[in-house]
Each structure stands twice: as C-alpha cells, then as structure tokens.
Amino acid sequence: MIPGEIIKSAKRADLPVILKKLGVNIIEEGKSFYLHEHDSLKFFKQEGVWLYKWWSCGETGDGIQYLMNHCGKNFREAVKLLSGYNDTSHSNQFKTNQLKKRDNWKTKSSKIVRISQTKLFGSEGKKTLSYLLIERGLHLETIEKFHIGWLPENNQMPSKIVIPCYNSKGDLMRVKFRIDNPVSNHGRYRVMKGSNTKTPFSSNISINKPVIIVESELDAILIDQVFGEDIGVLSLGGVCTNLSIQVISYLNEKIPVNLISLDNDKAGQASALRLMKCIKNTYNWPIPEGFGKDPTEAYKRMNLKNWILEGLKKGGYNYRSRNNKK
Fold it and tell me: Strand, helix or coil at 137?
C-alpha cells in the first residue's frame, strides 16, 4: 500500500511539467494550461493541487485521475510518476500480482466465452438463438464471428447472453452480460469482474474511413453485419462512458466523419450533445421517432443501410463515390 503522504505529494506535483515529458501538448495560458487538441480541457492549480477540467465533456479530477483516465496509467504508476515514489519490492510484487490476475482473468473469461457458445447452440439455447436471429437481426455467421454466447440460470445466477469484447489486437478485454430477466430496479447489463471497462468496443475502424458511434455492443455488431469493412463502428457500452483523449484525438484527426447514432431517448441525446462538443467532425443521426430508439429496434421497420448512407451524406461524406473508386 502506498503511504498517504506519498499520495498527497503526488497530488501536489507539477503536473504540467510531467505531462510535457509524456509528450502531451499543453499550452500555457496565464497561470493555467489547456490541451492543444481540445482547448476546453483546462489544467489549473487550486490550493496547491493541480486539477483538470474538461468543460465540454463534464469531466474533472486531479493529476492522478488524469494520468489514469487519459495516459493509460494505473493508480500506482500514476502516483509513482507524479511523486517519484519507487518502492522496488512493492512495485515488483505489485506487477507480479497484476500479471497473475490478468492471466487468471483471461483464462477464466475465455472459458466462460467457450462454454457460452456451446450452450447457445445447444438444446437449452434455442430460445435465445432465435431471439438473436429474429429480434436482434443477427446472422449465424455474425454470432459466430463475434463469439456471442448464452449461459443458463445456475446457482442463483440469472440466465444471460454473453457478449465478449476484443481490442484492436484481438485480445479479449471485456465480457458483458445481457440478463434475460433482470430483477426489478436492477440493470439488464452487467460486466464480468476484472474486465477492462474503459476501452470502447470497436470494429473495422481505420484511417479515412467513416465511423458510426452507437450505444450498445449488439447495435455495433448489427451495423458491422450490414456494412462489413466499409464503415467503422464504435460502441460506448453505455451513455455515461467517457472516451479517452487518445480516442477522441484519433476520431478528430483520422476520421472524415463520425456519425453519432446513440439512443434517441433523453439520456442518449444528452450524451450525443456531449460527444459533439468533444469531437468536431460529427453529425448527430439518431433513429427517427416511430422507428424505435436504437438501430436494433429499427432494423425491422427501416432499411438500416440506406438510413446510415443518408446520415453520412448529410454529414458531408460521399460513401457511394468512395465505392466507385475501388
């Protein structure tokens, strides 16, 4: 455990100096600083402690939190970097424990995914498989491609759809559960303990390709099925998810247009407006009223591909001419 005085020292460290050493491009403005890529993200000193506030995204915190949220550091690494604290014995043991936990999680989560796939395609999973095919609009090939599965009720654990999420390297980073029959006042979605909850689920995102941003992983998978590799898809996994500065910078600098298609309810549109303040090249394109709240609900009532193509056109991207160039 890191001593309390070390943590206090980290919070009082010269954050701007450390950020510059990390290659973060910050601009001095009087006694404060702002991020070059996003001038609404300010760094300022208050009562001897450096803080940051991202006005357009409604995010605030101290130096430790900034390094954790936007520089890929864990708590111990952030404190060490800010304070110079380096207990080698503790640090080495911590790294060993972290690697062991990560390996154990990968083993356990991969096993759960494999079992869930077997259950989904077995006799017990017929009802859920039918739901995925008919109600969610997914093809068998898509279900297999994304390793979607299902687990029956067991030891007071409810039955649930299993949605594994992989990073750009193909490593399993998160396992999400969609509960079949959630208890009143409990959410339908849960995440397996130990999962990486900060990195958004994405598919086919690359430079100069349009991206559509949706709320749920299943929405993203459906759109991936419709367009294949022609359009990148990014799922927030929830309306409260904050994208990292690295992700936002990539979307701003490398993507021609970001089509925001979050749920058309109040929470979804509030999140959409927040994203539009952070990502400059965006066009808000929710499902029109009367067709459902999200792409999955709308797929039976409208042609999703034509709807997305129309949104891209309104956002200033000519998808058809791009195809003609191939």
Answer: coil
